[in-house]
Amino acid sequence: MGTIVCQDCQNIIEQYEEEKVTTLYGTCPTCRENK
C-alpha cells in the first residue's frame, strides 16, 4: 500500500496499490491554492 501525504498539512492525499509500503510527499490542491 502506498500513501501520498501533503507535506504542508500532513493530510493523506491518495492511497494506491503498491507491493511494499511507501510514503510519498506532495502538495494537496487546498495547500497549492493558498500559496
From TrEMBL:
Pfam families: SR1P
Domain of life from the UniProt record: Bacteria
Name of protein: GapA-binding peptide SR1P
